[in-house]
Amino acid sequence: QVQLVESGGGSVQAGGSLRLSCVVFGRTFSDYAMGWFRQAPGKAREFVAAINWSGGTSDYADSVKGRFTVSRDNAKKTVLLQMNSLQPEDTAVYFCAADLAPWASAVKIDPSKYDYWGQGTQVTVSS
Q: What is the pLDDT, as a whole number, of residue 103?
């Protein structure tokens, strides 16, 4: 059984920053890639960022490149998403997800390829 628990969401004004955390329980964390996705009301879940098992490869949606940074601490079984220069269009529920294909060098942007999901954390950016 794998459990992912996100935290760090909240409400900020445009231009502000938030850092999301996702802690993984129940499985060897360092073997697999982690992703961040978001879903706004009435919209499909979309890829935000992902990082492979070693932290050596990451990928970002074009809409967040240069503003968001994904990182991981395998000792703490945690993946982080630092979000800077937040804009109202970043408002959504943010989810972390685990891809259990071990030691994959590439990361995946398709949410259907991820095996486990957290419950989500709300991020609201006001103008």
A: 80
**Residue 115, amino acid:** D
> Which pair of structure tokens corresponds to residue 108?
């995946």
Q: Determine contact, residues 125/86, Cβ cutoff 8 Å.
A: yes
Query: CB-based contacts of 60: which residues, under 8 Å, 6+ apart?
Result: 48, 49, 68, 70
| Tokens describing residue 20 | 């999301």
Share of the chain above pLDDT 70, in %: 100
Comparison of pLDDT for 30 and 115, the residue scoring more:
115
Helix %, strand %, coil % of the chain (to 5): 5, 50, 45
User: Phi and psi at residue 9, in whole multiples of 5°?
Assistant: -70, 170
Mean local confidence (pLDDT), 104-116: 91
DSSP E strands, 9-111: 10-13, 18-25, 33-39, 46-51, 58-60, 68-73, 78-83, 92-99
* Cα 96 to chain centroid, rounded: 4
